[in-house]
Amino acid sequence: MGKLFRMRLLLLLLIPIALTAGDNNYVKGPVGTLYRWKQIDFQYPSEQERLNAIANGQFKQSSVIPLGIERWKDRVFVSTPRWKRGVPATLSALPTIAEEESPPLVPYPNWDWHNAGNCTGFTSVFRMSVDHCGVMWVLDSGQIEAFETPQQICPPTLFAIDLETDTVLAKYPIPNEFVLQNSLITNILVDSRDARCRDLHVYIADAWRFGLIVFRNSDAAFWRFSHYTFYPEPLLSNYTLHGVNYQWSDGLFGMSLGKLQHGDRPLYYHAMSSSLEFVVNTSVIRDPNRVDNAVSEFKLLGKRQGLNSQVSAAAVDRNGIMFFNLISRDSIGCWNTNTEYRASNRDVVAKSNVSLVFPNDLRIDHEVPQFVWMITNKLPMYQFNLINPNEYNYRVLSLDPVRAIQNTVCQRQF
């Protein structure tokens, strides 16, 4: 078994690089490209059904963008929100061992969940977070055509899917009182403590109404609160990426969990349109009776320098190293959470103006050894219809966190 595992791990490391060697020649750092696409396709039951979907407008390749990424064992999961007309499926699965460079996405768990009516299936999945028991928590916005004529056709909903059986275990619509007008429920993080994942909470970020929604699994309870640290910074709301200038006033977005110590653990968080990183103990936000009276327990960690220092997603590995997406710098950064959050303790582990253009989502899996998984998707170009279908625009990338920090300040802090 040990030999088989080592062989499989070697394949995981080598095959992506072999398949897309051209990509990796442009990357500074130990990043491998597992998949890349010029445009996204889907695996239909038959070619005729695919052609019918194109003919009737249900499938339009230019409308599809990969957004969220997760990994469990031998599969990666990719979300494709229905931001424009013509997105036939919104959650898919692919193997971690690539057999082709640009495979069609396989709708997950099956096509039925993407064609269901009356809000019984998936509407528009943004992101996912897998707990260590193999349940994937899926955040469905319930909104379609957000970049065209936004329609809230279903309530934002949290789904729980057993990845061993590919069974949807439960769905939890977020109560109306916690979804405000113009809310953008965009990111999700699961916090599971005990071996059987009974003490489990899910944290959900509202980027446009600057709030955090908490879900407690034991009794399916939700609560919501706001804090002034969830707001964007005005000057960081202006972006320029590869000549494209745009303005986003996105608040609370990136969230990551530190180590569990003495029954508590820190939640690191930031607004996307911001240079500031904050922290709060999760014991504060897991208690709905305490959170509104704990303003001073939300603390500033530090500041990133420059007007292009915005960060989307972040995650912390078992060694306490945070990896984060520098979306305006075509880069992945690192910080050892055992040190102060200052420039001399942060570093860049990967950079590419080809394959790391707008690194959007980032997750760290539960495997041994762990891997970092990222989606890059040129989101601003997609939003403004500037995607060139003759170029590789979308990528699933992997990174070995131990190799990544070698010869960086993040390693030297141990």
Automatic annotation (TrEMBL):
Coiled-coil residues: none
Swiss-Prot/TrEMBL keywords: Secreted, Signal
Compartmental location: Secreted
Signal peptide positions (record): 1-22
Residue intervals passing through the bilayer: none
Stored InterPro entries: 6-blade_b-propeller_TolB-like, MRJP/yellow-related
Official protein name in the record: Yellow-h3
